[in-house]
Design a protein that fits this description.
The protein has one helix and eleven strands. The chain is mainly beta and 141 residues long. The strands form four sheets. The protein has a four-stranded antiparallel β-sheet, with no helix packed on it. It is globular.
Length: 141
């Protein structure tokens, strides 16, 4: 399976490491952010994903610890139709402290997932399975 990658900045090329299922993405420029500031951080790439797949983009586990930034929408979903020459990828960030992210810092990661199959939604009056007890109830009894 092949993912076509176009680079829009002079960054270290993407690499699929043998360990792990995610591919790291890098900041395409040096970014300074003040606490409370929101910014789209360019990742310097656009991609053509395989047909029937979408990309899920999430922060790396060290992103908050190193830079004090959070991904504003928790996870990004890039569908296969976002594949044009100028469909650039970004990391949507809010800073909780003043921070500086250097060009080529690995700030997030992505993996490809099969798209959801076609489904039909059916309205019913009742669901017949037993209730589990609500949010946060697992393991309480």
């Amino acid at each position: 399976m092949t993912i076509q990658v176009r680079y829009h900045a002079d960054i270290i090329p993407l690499e699929k490491l043998p360990q792990g299922d995610w591919i790291d993405l890098r900041a395409a420029e040096t970014v300074e952010m003040k606490a409370g500031e929101y910014r789209l951080i360019p990742l310097g790439v656009s991609m053509k994903l395989p047909q029937g797949y979408e990309a899920h983009v999430a922060p790396r586990s060290s992103t908050f610890k190193k830079w004090g930034i959070l991904m504003t929408n928790s996870v990004g979903v890039i569908d296969e139709s976002y594949c044009g020459d100028n469909d650039l990828w970004y990391f949507s960030a809010v800073a909780l402290r003043d921070t500086r992210i250097e060009k080529n810092d690995r700030i997030c990661q992505f993996r490809i997932m099969k798209k959801m199959p076609d489904v039909e939604l059916e309205t019913v009056e009742f669901l017949t399975d037993p209730d589990r007890g609500g949010i946060g109830s697992t393991g309480e009894k």
